[in-house]
Design goal:
Pfam families: M20_dimer, Peptidase_M20. The protein is α/β, with parallel strands linked by helices. The chain has helices at residues 2-6, 13-24, 35-48, 119-134, 159-163, 166-171, 219-242, 292-303, 340-351, 368-373, 400-419, 425-432; strands at residues 52-56, 64-69, 78-84, 103-104, 109-111, 143-148, 173-178, 187-188, 190-194, 196-205, 209-210, 253-261, 264-265, 268-269, 273-274, 277-286, 310-314, 355-356, 360-362, 378-381, 397-399. The structure holds N-formylmethionine (FME) and zinc ion (2 copies).
């Protein structure tokens, strides 16, 4: 029977799904991703379809697997298909199916951490290329695939180092595809920019006192005034989304993600003592076109005013630079006629019978920002229609039919991108004659 398995036709749906499951079964969850295993798997996939491969460790133990399908006109700018290999942690016991078994249920849903974010995309790139190669297609432009580590913890040891490297420069990349989001309706979503994360910790101090005493300026009261102010702002932003005036990526989101206060005791917390310190953490996401200075002012004056004994810290991710280019303009990939790659994507999706929604700002962060910072166009796209958005959630799944459909979509996109030759002025005038 092992002989039969070896001889199974790799182009069947069941072979394609089983390769996806194999990748999902590798536990690459942070904070201790099994990169040795994922690297070996990706290299074996590359070998099976005769792609050139190399593994680069800009940081030790953080491998980037870089694959290449050489074009017949290698001087043309290349196509980069990027995906990250790590996934976020799981609470295994809260899942209906084990998050690293890639269980296929009777609806055809494949349950696994990474099924949407974003092992699907990495494997779909490979499957699309497998099929294009089998069909005899020859790319004019070189096509690269990068499988990068550590996106979920900021990408500093992965995509950021890669984008700044000489290796990357030598690749002469012209367009990058990276991750998007699932879509609950029939339209695929595509992203041309993303919000910038600001991770804010506010700290209140105040006089300690008896738990029975009502007095002003306790740390808890001071912190709660801030929390109330943050919540009013949050509600106003959220209302704009609920009313349909703004898309999710176009407002400033702010969510409280931790609260830290109280005087510990062996049995829990001291109940009759009002503590002298209290802290709260907020995940804030700032759209590229938002007024960052006014938000910073709001934080200093309303959310953590010194007049209320408050201090604040904006963590390492408050990176204004990542939402502005060197001229101070927001970093956005054009979605008009100035960007042929956008037009090609739209047409290619349509050609493969897919529907594309309006371009959006990605509400969270992706590695695409590092490529945009290098001045490159980057489009966030994960072809999952009719799918609930479950990234970072329990019971993340993707339906096998949607997964297979996504391969058709990438086949169409890669074909269009790898064949694209700009129409020069000469050619236009020749056409018009
Ligand atoms: C800011 S680095 C973390 C990146 C992460 N990306 C996807 O979820 C995010 O929180 O948006
Ligand atoms: Zn992701
Ligand atoms: Zn993620």
């Amino acid at each position: 029977s092992s002989l039969l398995e070896e001889e199974e036709d790799p182009s069947t749906a069941s072979a394609i799904i089983s390769r996806f499951q194999q990748y999902l079964q590798i536990n690459t969850s942070q904070p201790d991703p099994d990169y040795p295993h994922s690297t070996a798997f990706l290299l074996s996939q590359a070998q099976s379809i005769s792609l050139q491969s190399q593994t680069i460790e800009f940081i030790s133990k953080k491998p980037i697997v870089l694959l290449k399908w050489e074009g017949t006109q290698p001087h043309l700018p290349s196509i980069l298909l990027n995906s990250h290999t790590d996934v976020v942690p799981v609470e295994t016991h809260k899942w209906a199916h084990h998050p690293f078994k890639a269980h296929l249920d009777h609806h055809g849903n494949i349950y696994a951490r990474g099924s949407q974010d974003m092992k699907c995309v990495g494997m779909q790139y490979l499957e699309a290329i497998r099929r294009l190669k089998a069909s005899g297609f020859q790319p004019l432009r070189s096509v690269y695939l990068s499988f990068v580590p550590d996106e979920e913890i900021g990408g500093h040891d992965g995509a950021e180092k890669f984008a700044e490297s000489d290796t990357f420069k030598d690749m002469n990349v012209g367009i990058v595809l990276d991750e998007g989001l699932a879509s609950p309706d029939e339209h695929y979503r595509a992203f041309y920019g993303e919000r910038c994360p600001w991770w804010l910790v506010v700290k209140a101090t105040g006089a300690p006192g008896h738990g029975a005493k009502l007095y002003d300026n306790s740390a808890m009261e001071n912190l709660f005034k801030s929390i109330e102010s943050v919540r009013r702002f949050r509600a106003a932003q959220f209302d704009l989304v609920k009313a349909g005036f703004k898309a999710e990526g176009e407002v400033i989101s702010v969510n409280m993600v931790f609260l830290k206060a109280g005087t510990p005791s062996p049995t829990g917390f001291v109940m009759n003592l009002q503590p002298s310190e209290a802290e709260a953490g907020f995940d804030i996401r700032v759209p590229p076109t938002a007024d960052a200075d006014s938000l910073e002012k709001r934080i200093a004056e309303e959310w953590a005013p010194a007049s209320r004994n408050m201090t604040f810290q904006l963590g390492q991710f408050k990176q204004k630079a990542s939402i502005e280019d060197k001229f101070g303009r927001p970093i956005l990939t054009a979605t008009d006629s100035s960007n042929p790659w956008w037009d090609l994507l739209e047409k290619a999706v349509k050609k493969a019978n897919g529907k594309l929604g309006k371009p959006e700002i990605f509400p969270a962060s992706t590695d695409a920002r590092y490529f945009r910072e290098m001045g490159l166009p980057a489009i966030g796209f994960s072809p999952m229609a009719n799918t609930p958005i479950l990234l970072h959630d329990h019971n993340e799944f993707l339906n096998q039919a949607e997964y297979l459909k996504g391969i058709d979509i990438y086949e169409s996109i890669i074909k269009a991108y790898a064949s694209y030759v700009p129409v020069t002025k000469d050619e236009v005038s020749r056409d018009e004659l």
